[in-house]
Write a structure and sequence with these properties.
Blueprint: H1 2-31, H2 34-62, H3 71-79, H4 85-109, H5 114-138, H6 145-157, H7 162-185, H8 200-231, H9 240-246, H10 253-277
């Protein structure tokens, strides 16, 4: 009986390995298809539009205007634009397609570089969240990222070890933000884009400043989760909008907010470049 079990386990392991190899081969083949380039280009353009709008709203917040400087605010701005629902549908579909493309890339990368595969999987989740938000807004729905974050934090805090989980989420988010900052400061994003030589300095400047600004914003989001856990107050937790608004309450924070807002807009411009010259 033991021998049969070992044989069955070995056969199952072999079948799983062959299935994994087949999936990786199929993903690598799909990655090389021309359609993948189109999806990347259009999807990154949509991503760029969202970041440009968020950066613009954040800049307005720095100078006393209202608005939600996050995905929800960007979707409301798109809905109020002349293109209206059409723009939301286009952005939503493009970002969902980009998420699928990122999943395919994660599977293809898993054979040679698991860290790259993990980054692609993380991007897939981020693209999918924004894409679904856009499609929900296009369908007439509404969402508030800040209220959603506070509700999630409150539910989590009510669970056993909830405060520790909220704090752990904050630490992980902050680490992701630091990774963005390092990626921008050290120009590690150059592996994902191949612009013409004459435009490389400009693209590197856009990407460097953009990644650093986005990373700093994400670090603040993580810090808010930790503060919420320490103070036992889910209302202290916030998403991107809460993080950026929090800067207006500290000395010199407005100047930092202006810098981050401009950086997010530069990141949006970088997304257009990445869509055009992605590796």
């Amino acid at each position: 009986m033991g021998e049969r079990a070992r044989t069955a386990a070995s056969e199952a392991k072999g079948a799983a390995g062959r299935a994994t190899d087949s999936a990786q081969d199929a993903a690598a083949k799909a990655e090389r298809h021309r359609i993948a380039d189109w999806v990347e280009g259009i999807g990154q353009a949509a991503n760029g539009i969202v970041h440009l709008i968020i950066g613009g709203i954040a800049l307005g917040v720095a100078f006393g205007s209202g608005g939600s400087a996050d995905q929800s605010g960007a979707m409301r701005a798109l809905r109020e634009s002349p293109a209206g629902a059409l723009a939301l549908w286009a952005v939503g579909i493009a970002l969902v397609a980009l998420a699928v493309h990122a999943v395919v890339r994660a599977v293809a990368d898993s054979r040679r570089d698991r860290w790259a595969a993990a980054r692609s999987a993380g991007r897939a989740v981020a693209y999918l969240v924004v894409g679904v938000t856009a499609l929900g807004a296009a369908s007439g729905g509404s969402s508030d990222s800040e209220q959603g974050t506070e509700s999630f934090s409150a539910d989590l805090m009510a669970a056993p070890l909830g405060l520790w989980l909220v704090a752990a989420i904050g630490v992980v988010v902050a680490i992701v933000g630091v990774a963005f900052v390092v990626r921008g400061a050290r120009l590690r994003f150059r592996e994902e884009i191949a612009p013409p030589a004459r435009l490389r300095p400009l693209v590197e400047a856009l990407g460097g400043a953009g990644y650093v600004a986005k990373g700093l914003a994400v670090v603040i989001v993580g810090a808010l989760f930790v503060i919420a856990a320490v103070q036992h107050d889910p209302q202290e937790a916030g998403g991107l909008d809460g993080a950026l608004h929090s800067l207006t309450t500290v000395p010199g924070g407005v100047f930092a907010l202006v810098g981050i807002a401009l950086g997010l807009m530069l990141y949006g411009a970088y997304c257009f470049a990445r869509g055009a010259w992605s590796r």
